[in-house]
Amino acid sequence: MADPSSYRPKPGQIPDSPGVYRFRDEHRRVIYVGKAKSLRQRLASYFQDLANLHPRTRTMVTTAASVEWTVVGTEVEALQLEYSWIKEFDPRFNVKYRDDKSYPYLAVTMNEQFPRVQVMRGRKRKGVRYFGPYGHAWAIRDTVDLLLRVFPVRTCSAGVFKNAARTGRPCLLGYIDKCSAPCVERISPQGHRELAEEFCDFMAGRTGTYVRRLERQMAEASEAMEYERAARLRDDIEALRKAMEKNAVVLADATDADLIALAEDELEAAVQIFHVRGGRVRGQRGWVTDKVEEVTTGDLVESAVQQLYAEESGDAVPKEVLVPALPEPAEPVQEWLAGRRGAQVSLRVPQRGDKRALMETVQRNAQQALVLHKTKRASDLTTRSRALEEIAAALDLDSAPLRIECYDISHLQGDDVVASMVVFEDGLARKSEYRRFQIRGFAGQDDVRSMHEVITRRFRRYLAEKERTGEWAGEGAAESPAAAPAPVPSANGTGDLCEGGPGALTDEDGRPKRFAYPPQLVVVDGGRPQVAAAQRALDGLGIDDIAVCGLAKRLEEVWVPAEDDPVVLPRSSEGLYLLQRVRDEAHRFAITYQRTRRAKRFKSGPLDEVPGLGETRKQALIKHFGSVKRLRSATIDQICEVPGVGRKTAEVIVAAFAQAAPAAPAVNTATGEIIEDDEPVSTGTTDDRRGQEE
């Protein structure tokens, strides 16, 4: 670890002008390349107190042993030079997009005497018309196969073409009328070129002319009783329509645009690009990157734009590039794009309309790509084993934590405070073991007290079960939250609500389903205060064989009890990646439950106060009487007329309404009039068992 002050240049040595800088390590390898509008101001930001730097930036400047820079004339030149150096040196601390394979294009070689339709990858050639890119080569071949019925353009290689010309016999496609066979002079060079130009026009979106022309020819053939020719034209029209369906219109006015969307977390980001030409989605591509440095969404957009257009010809840059956030500043990037295209390019964030809706679709694709990437990474056994070993080494555990439980607190401004518990075993989520809690010990917002209460309740149950059985309860003894039985007061004197007790569902061995299986590691979502609260809860219960740590979301630091400084795992650590997945899953589970409870509270009605009244019978009562007001004034005999409602239930309903205080009338704030309670209302639900300790 180098001391940045040892190689810090003097402020007067750094020019106050645009440029590109490179950090090198002790072996002279370039580890980071950056650009700046002012080299002096930007480089000064790296040589400040290390405690003020982002952990990833701190790692970079302490790994570096020297810094050098190159002055350029404008920010656009800096952008171009930065990309060139990133390509040349492949710095370890720069954003690098993985899976950046060469995407296939549908190409028409208009620079040849007999243009050929084919799949092409790599750098674009002069005189070749390109369409795409496509996600897969088979998608191009499917489209071409449909269009060859109408546009029988040459698709064979140069060797096959020469061999057919030498023998005087066309290839198979020539015999089945999917090639006009210019190799044997069935069509003149000029006629074949016109056919290729029509193919290009159709692929460019000018489709209506050809379909209407074929329909007219089909009608003329039918009137002339040339039914075989009419049938062939009918099949050609159907082939064109199928090809058009593969490229459905998504934007009006024949728009040419590329839409770039991002899905990101603290460690990784996924980029998805939709290529729209002539109002149709012509291709899709995507990348995944590690966020090695501290970058914003605008920085990721800038890197994606560079990656996308730096190696392409000017005609690959569309009139519009739609992004989720603009780079800062955006003008150099926009000017660079205009220079690549040779005309003005609009770089902007769509705000409304069809483009905004399509951007949301691209965003969903990016999110799915990130989830898929994480799933593939997590499914690898070797990777999971290495992650668990790294966690054990970082936290100084005796063995790898095969069972990890993570807890998170969620609320909305202090209301509906809930907590979640998620379980990972051998590095994989075990959703049947997930649990959810309501915070009942106090009112209001206090994440530290909430964490203490949840940990106490969970492990008090564990101790009670251990004492009851005299041994560890069987693994996998719990049900999923959706299938959990209704909670009943526990018999262990703790005051907790639990799903055990007489008549509760049991496992095959007859044991009630309880929190009986202990983890080797407890992870809490938060920093030092939450970790300390969890440790106090375990200490108060006399548990000393379960490790505790916390993961702070802002800087991804791992906190352990009684330590003043956090454990900083390497950015590339699989252990950090696993802890982040566990933490994020706990957050997702908690916030989903909190939103469910909030929605349920908003939809609750007077019938929710009636004990023992299920959802089906509530709906039947409202349907029969039409409103709660009419039900409240009904007699016991009238309520008994509702199917499924007996006299005892009717008496309970009447008694509940009699004991309940009349609700204050609702008032229309605009008119001041009282709103009558004579309209159908939502009945809510009484099935709140999923909100207890599951």
From TrEMBL:
It comes from the Bacteria. Belongs to the UvrC family. Residues 208-243 form the UVR domain. This is UvrABC system protein C. One of its GO terms (cellular component) is cytoplasm. Residues 211-247 form a coiled coil. Residues 470-511, 669-694 are annotated as: Disordered. Residues 259-538 form the UvrC family homology region profile domain. Keywords: Coiled coil, Cytoplasm, DNA damage, DNA excision, DNA repair, Excision nuclease, SOS response.
